[in-house]
């Protein structure tokens, strides 16, 4: 994998009353979305590098259904500013990972921003 494409985000996860918190602070971070985006970007890099040839191979290696991997891979196409919003905990409260997996995500970044605005 090309190290110039890698990004390191120093986050610490802690549990408090059954909730998974980022940096130990109560915030609007949805850790599930953040983890899913990171996973999708990693899988996308594995496909680009040729480490895996298909979604089916990744699914087999991860013990997941190919449809699940395919749905999660769509998150790798999110606009960088949207991913940054997720990392800062500024995503709309009603937006969930389940919604992102079950609905189409537009390919164009301006359309993605409009999609998120409908949740505000």
Structure overview:
By secondary structure, the chain is mainly alpha-helical. It has helices at about 30-50, 55-60, 65-75, 80-90, 95-100, 110-115, and strands spanning about 15, 20. It is built from six helices and two strands; from the N terminus they run E-E-H-H-H-H-H-H. A two-stranded antiparallel sheet has the order 1-2. The mean pLDDT is about 85.
Entry keywords:
about 120 residues, mainly alpha, two-stranded antiparallel sheet, 6 helices, about 50% helix, globular
Brief sketch in words of this structure:
It contains six helices and two strands. With 120 residues, the chain is mainly α. It has a two-stranded antiparallel sheet with strand order 1-2.
The number of E-state strands comes to 2
Compute the average pLDDT.
Answer: 86
Low-confidence stretches: none
The proportion of residues forming helix, as a percent range, comes to: 40-55%
What is the oligomer described by this structure? single chain
Spell out the blueprint of helices and strands:
Blueprint: E1 13-16, E2 19-22, H1 31-49, H2 55-62, H3 66-73, H4 80-88, H5 97-102, H6 109-117
Antiparallel strand pairs: 1-2
Helix pairs in contact: 2-3
């Amino acid at each position: 994998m090309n190290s110039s494409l890698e990004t390191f985000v120093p986050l610490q996860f802690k549990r408090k009353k059954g909730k998974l918190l980022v940096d130990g602070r109560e915030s609007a971070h949805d850790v599930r979305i953040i983890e899913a985006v990171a996973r999708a970007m990693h899988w996308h890099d594995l496909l680009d590098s040729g480490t895996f040839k298909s979604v089916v191979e990744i699914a087999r290696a991860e013990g997941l259904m190919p449809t699940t991997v395919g749905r999660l891979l769509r998150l790798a196409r999110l606009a960088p500013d949207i991913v940054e919003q997720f990392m800062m905990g500024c995503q709309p409260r009603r937006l969930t990972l389940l919604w992102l997996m079950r609905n189409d995500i537009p390919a164009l970044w301006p359309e993605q921003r409009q999609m998120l605005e409908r949740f505000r």
